[in-house]
Description:
The complex is a heterodimer of chains A (265) and B (264).
Chain A: H1 2-20, H2 22-47, E1 53-54, E2 57-58, H3 59-84, H4 87-92, H5 95-100, H6 106-112, H7 117-120, H8 122-136, H9 143-169, H10 171-174, H11 178-190, H12 200-208, H13 212-224, H14 234-264
Chain B: H1 2-44, H2 56-73, H3 76-88, H4 91-95, H5 101-130, H6 142-165, H7 167-170, H8 174-187, H9 199-205, H10 215-222, H11 227-258
Amino acid sequence: MRYLKLYLNFVKNCFRRETIYRFNFFVNMFTVVMGYASHILFYYFVYDTGIEQISGWDRYQIYCLLATVWIVDSIFGGVFFFNLIKIPSKVKNYELDGLLTKPVNSVFMLSLRQFNFGLFSGTFFGAAFLIYSLWRGNIRVSAFGILCYLILVICAVILLFSILFIMVTFSLRFVRIQGLIGMYWTFMDIGKNPHSIYPMALKYGLVFIIPATVVYNFPVQVLVGNHYLRYLNSVSTLILAIAITAVFLTGSVFYFIKSLRYYYD
Amino acid sequence: MRIQKAAFKLKLSEFTIYRSNVFLNFFFGCVPLLVQIFLWKAIYGNGLERIGGYSYKQMITYYVLTFLCSEILDARDNTVKMSEMIQDGQIHNYLLKPIGFLSLNYKLYQAEKMIYLLNVGIPFLVFCLAIHKFIYWKAYNLLFFVISFCLAFVLKYMIGCILGLITTWVEEITGLLDLLNNVEKFLSGSLIPLTLLPSGLNMALSFLPFKYTLFVPVDIYMGNMKSQDMGISIGIQAVWCIVLGLVLIILKNEAFKKYSGYGS
Lengths: 265, 264
């Protein structure tokens, strides 16, 4: 309860700041919308050349995938990204020392202090686009499907957090980690394409080694029924995603605690 | 020439510090190209021979070339640096030198890009050889490609400088830069070949400079343009260079009149 109150204060504080720099907020929002719109236009023009499907995905199924990418990235970007990305500079400028002395959980302080409303607003655009795609594609979704989708989106956001948290924790040991963050985005972008374009061996790698398709493809497959692996139905997809998320989250927190000991030394 | 040499030496020493970062960025930049190979294979798997006038090999080559050209033509760092120099007053140091600010800045920029090209040239060639099955090698328009690429280089530099100088009036331009970056990606053909767009939209894009900063040189390499169209496109690129050059000079004069060295 104490943490919830604290978090609400953080969000209020960030909201006040956003209202001061209103122009910046709208530029941020518009920039992000343009970025996603260009990806949607890419597929729009590709399908306009007369093709019916890309590896079994029709136009509106792909749109559902793009909408999911938009939703997941916006939640992650709004809630976690700007906090995590600042950890290396906090290490470099010794700001981390001050944070560690506070009577609050250090993972909480490091990952939830900032809330970016400009990026988070993309969630609503993404959701609107998802509803439009489901409606135009005549894709019927059950209540259970929606529940699975929401859980998988939460798993996706936690997974993105865990992987980036592991990467930025490296800065406690090596300080300069710009290249690693570039690598993070590169590998995560692989999951933003329909899974069926990849060969089978790579598909397994993208689940168990770099879970990029768990992040972006898993939620959408319970909606459109385009299953990643033939033997995975909605329930087994859900269990697999939760298990992978739990492993990565535990691993990231454990690695952070271990690296803190190194940092204290 | 002496200044160019000095600029080259300076950038070379800078490069040796950030070498690992440059190589890492380059190698990770190659990963999306591999994804493009899978994606377009699936798209062409529908039985189409050509899409937007490109065969499968040409399409992959288009993305490979687009990647290399975008990396070389990327002027964002220079724009941000110029903007920071105006913000914190460092530009004083350059204004006191017995050489024009833009001339010196261009020499440094050119040296930086030459060093980048020399360093990633071999890894890029190795990458192309690794995916040689998917590469379209017929480069009978190589000379025109080089001319067009050089003009695109100047164009991108000037667009970047204009944005950088705008800092004199608006102070913070990173949001504007990100926005332009996203718009430019689409309008320059970095995301999708412009021949896939409806002809009306493609025609409208011919009146903007972005098409000439990337799509035109790459399309010339592909040999899709008739020699007459090639001449016209290169001519338009030259006209854009002159127009933006004039805008840049006027803007520079106005900016330096307004510049007060606040923060220096």
